[in-house]
Protein 1
Amino acid sequence: MEWYHAVMVLAAGLAAGFINTVAGGGSSITLPVLVLVGLPPNVANGTNRVAILLQSMVGVSTFRNNKVLDMGDGWRLSLPSALGALAGALVAIRVSDEAMRVVIIALMVGMLLLVIFNPEAWVKRQANDVVAKTGPWQYFLFFLIGFYGGFIQVGVGFLLLAGLVLGRGLDLVRANALKVMIVLVYTVIALIIFWHDNSVHLWMGLLMGAGSMLGAYAGAKFTIRGSAKYVRWFLIAMLVVMILKLTGVF
């Protein structure tokens, strides 16, 4: 691996840790970067979980220290998400590298459209008007989100945020805190599956994770203090570059 590959991995982790903690979509940067520096798509998918785990640990700690994380609610929603992630990761390790590459490119395009049309802004506008709901459907919803997160992770932050704000009636700060905790719990499960399948490049994951932890700390502080209006434009630019590179345009 060239020295600049290490710089790319570290920088991608830093950016993704911040973005994932503030909103979501950071894996749309880290996953293609891991592919670009030479990892097979399935190994990139597993290695990405090391960074996700480390940044989530920092995010949860920061949110908890600032007393905006409801641990009880977090555990209730983490359980179905973890079961979903177990199923999703088991499916992911059975997908061929070429099929996973196609999935990654398709998700990059999907994430680009998602960020451009910005449905998260609509979710935020609804935050003050949503009444909390309870029922078995919520646990099924978080099982499905966990399945997606265990399978590929890209964009799961938005799905969790939407589920927590629209389905749970939480304000944005507390929803972000719970989102990070749920991701932490199910990532442990998913990482065990990928590790057992030899689909984790530990050194690369730890390097990306080091950047992710710094980004997550800054992102958690930023979330508590305000909003991230420039994150969306940064993410759009990065997605365009990654899509062009992965599809061989340049």
Note: DSSP finds eleven helices and no strands in the chain.
Protein 2
Amino acid sequence: MKIFITGGSRGIGRRIVTMALERGHDVAFTYNSSNTEHIEKLLEETKKLAPDRMCKGYQLNVRNVDDVVRVTDNVLDDFDSIDTVINNAAINRNNLAFHMTDEEWHDVIDTNLNGAFYIIRQFLPVFLANRKGHFVSVSSIAKDGISGQANYSASKAGLIGLSGTIAKEYGIKGITSNVVVPGMFETDMVKETLSDNLRKFWLLHNPMKRMGHLDELAEVALFLGSDAASFVNGQVISVTGGLDWAE
């Protein structure tokens, strides 16, 4: 299987990349960082992990539709085709709604939601030609609203509507589209934005009393992106340990 994943250089995306390689898949991933040293280290790791598999990274800001077209064309030239697309790229710009600037709003919506749409639109012709394909979008527990994240919550809720529409429009063509909803995982984004008090609060109210492990989320994402889930379509799968709301 050939997998394309956005935001694959760290956190959730990075673990999906490495697990996919471990499972014998070829992987193309994108990153928005200008830290090429970081990417080179990741590619060295993937080469050691799966020397017989193809893995390439592509610098991409998904909010730029022209760049999306250019990079996806390059991916298809390099990999010939793609079987599964995982929309994972995301940013946050936290602020209370009254104080949120236009720039903070648009930065997040353009990246998290518009970028996912651009990626899906680019790969739809490939999936249609193949008569099959899997889209997986990574949403968030913030999809139902979270204080200080109106932009992020709106983008993650929007992914669910987008994914459901793709599922209904193209299921007849053998194309599936599903969403995975992570709860609290130890990622750079969580470490940067979650206060100690809020971490303690969430752990207290999570029925499992712990943070999620990235392996647990990557397993679900790769399942939804596999032929094993060929009759799973238009679904929203929560991987939250039972905590399905946020403050």
Note: Residues 102-130 form the longest helix (29 residues).
